[in-house]
């Protein structure tokens, strides 16, 4: 391969601090004076002018066997068609050992683009996202637990019929990653209880209502959050 450099525009948008256990998307695009045929990503222990073949973590040629064993199956190109001039990758199941210097090469048989940058992967601190819709007694509702991470997209749902017994109860969303990493978040359920109509029989004794005469009074009872209120007329 001829290593002739071409004038190019490279546009990486990188979050250099990413939490271990999650995943990272490295968006990038490029312009070149040649038709790109190969995209190669490397991870080096130290900043160097050119990483070695043994440092490869992703190669767009599926027949290449030089990919580091620790990165196999964890790195993928978001746009498989290299002619689209997009070099974004996603790294799954991040590990602290992934911290280091990364290098990108985009090449054809007569040209080469190189770019260097550094990443640091920190310990997992993010919590799952728990989505709870308004909960009304007797009306089916679905709770959603979404794993943290910009590129995870993994979620789990729980569908149930809320009742008075569920009010103020706690629900926990727990996400487990490979490598025995877990993160969780607990939320409290807030159930609005249904309205119910009641009829009260009230005995009033007086000049207008002699003993033994009953006056029928209608009212309504509203139960919200376990409290009962009576409205009489």
TrEMBL record:
Location within or outside the cell: Membrane
Ranges of biased composition (kind: Basic residues): 224-233
SUPFAM superfamilies linked to this entry: Immunoglobulin (SSF48726)
Topological relation to the membrane, as annotated: Single-pass membrane protein
GO BP of this protein: cell adhesion
Region ranges (Disordered): 209-233
A GO cellular component entry from the record: plasma membrane
Stored InterPro entries: Ig-like_dom_sf, Ig-like_fold, Ig_CD22, SIGLEC
GO molecular function: sialic acid binding
Keyword line: Membrane, Transmembrane, Transmembrane helix
Taxonomy, superkingdom: Eukaryota
PANTHER family: BRANCHED CHAIN KETO ACID DEHYDROGENASE E1 SUBUNIT BETA,-LIKE-RELATED, SIALIC ACID BINDING IMMUNOGLOBULIN-LIKE LECTIN
Protein name stated in the entry: B-cell receptor CD22 first Ig-like domain-containing protein
Lineage of origin: Eukaryota, Metazoa, Chordata, Craniata, Vertebrata
């Amino acid at each position: 391969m001829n290593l002739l450099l071409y004038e190019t525009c490279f546009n990486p948008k990188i979050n250099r601090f990413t939490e271990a256990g999650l995943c990272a998307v490295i968006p990038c695009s490029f312009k070149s004076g040649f038709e790109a045929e190969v995209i190669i990503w490397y991870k080096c222990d130290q900043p160097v002018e050119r990483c070695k073949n043994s440092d490869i973590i992703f190669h767009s040629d599926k027949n290449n066997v030089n990919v580091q064993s620790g990165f196999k199956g964890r790195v993928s190109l978001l746009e498989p068609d290299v002619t689209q001039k997009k070099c974004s990758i996603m790294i799954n199941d991040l590990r602290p050992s992934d911290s280091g210097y990364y290098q990108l090469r985009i090449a054809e048989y007569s040209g080469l683009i190189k770019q260097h940058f550094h990443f640091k992967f920190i310990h997992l601190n993010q919590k799952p996202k728990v989505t709870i819709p308004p909960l009304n007694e007797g009306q089916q509702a679905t709770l959603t637990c979404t794993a943290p991470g910009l590129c995870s997209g993994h979620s789990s749902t729980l569908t149930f019929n809320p009742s008075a017994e569920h009010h103020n109860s706690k629900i926990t969303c727990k996400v487990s990653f490979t490598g025995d990493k877990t993160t969780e978040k607990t939320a409290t359920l807030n159930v609005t209880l249904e309205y119910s109509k009641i009829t009260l029989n009230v005995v009033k004794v007086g000049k207008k209502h002699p003993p033994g005469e009953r006056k029928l009074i209608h009212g309504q009872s509203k139960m919200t959050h376990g409290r009962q209120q009576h409205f009489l007329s």
